[in-house]
Amino acid sequence: MIDGKRRKEEKRIKDEDLFKVVDSTIDSRTYLSLIQLARKLQIKEYYGAISSGKEAKIYPALTKDGTWYAVKIYYVTTAASKRALEKYTIGDPRFKDVKIKTTFQLIETWARKEYKNLVRLYEAGVSSPRPIFVYRNILVMDFIGQDGIRAPLLKELSEEEINEDLYRKVIGELEKMVNIAHLVHGDLSEYNIMVWDEKPYIIDVSQSVDLQHPNALELLKRDIENINRFFEDHNISVELVEDILSRLKISNVNSDDVHDSPR
Ligand code: ATP
Ligand code: MN
Fold it and tell me: Does the keyword RNA-binding feature in the UniProt annotation (predicted)?
C-alpha cells in the first residue's frame, strides 16, 4: 500500500519533470496526452513555447537519445478560428467523410490534416519538417534549428541572406509541392518559411489543400504573389507569376475564373 503510494508519487514527480517550463495554458487533457506521447516517443523534456499563434503553440522537445522535435499543440479559442477550420476542411476530398461533432474533434481533424500534408510533402521530397507522429490535438515533427533554438523565419533574415539564390530555392519547393505533392500551401509567406543552412523549409501546412480544392488556383496565385512581393521588396528580380504558373501542372485544377464549362 505504502509502496504503491510511493510509486505513484514518484511517477507524478517524473511526469512533472518532463516540463522544463510550466505552461498554465495547457489544459489537463492535453497535459495527459503530452505525458503519453513522451512515453511513446522517448521524450525526456518539453521546453517552453517558442511561439504562440492564433491556433497553435510550438514547443521544443528533447528525446532521451538527444533528438529535438517540434511539438505543435492545436487549440481553438474563438468562433472565428473554428470557422477557419471548417472552411479549409470542408471541400477537401480527403475529409469529405469526416463527420465533425465537437470542437475538440475539429481540432483533432486539423492536427491530422497538417500531419497528412507533411507526409505528402515529405514523400514528394519537399523541404519541410519530417512528420513524426500525431496524437489527438498534438503534432510532432522534426525540429528545424539546433539545440532547441529554432531557425529564423524568412522574415527574420538579414538583408545579405535574402538573395536571388534563396528566391529560386523557395520557388523550387513550391513547384515540387504542386507538381509532386499536389498541394497548395494556402498561407505561404515570409512567416511560414524557415531558413536553415541557406535552405528554405516550408512550415505551417494545416490549411494546405489538394489541387482539387475549389479554391486551389486562387490560393496558389496568392501564395506566389506573397513570395514575389517579399523578394521584390528586398530588391530581388522576380519571375512573372504567369511564368511560374506555366511550369505547374494545374491544367485540370478547379478554377472559379472558368465559367464556360458545359453544364
Ligand atoms: P502563427 O499563427 O504564428 O503562424 P501557427 O499556429 O500557424 O503560428 P506555425 O506557423 O506552424 O504555427 O509555427 C509557429 C512558429 O513556430 C513558426 O513561426 C516557427 O517559428 C516555429 N516552428 C514551427 N515549426 C517548427 C519546426 N518544425 N521547428 C522549429 N520551429 C518551428
Ligand atoms: Mn504560421
Answer: no
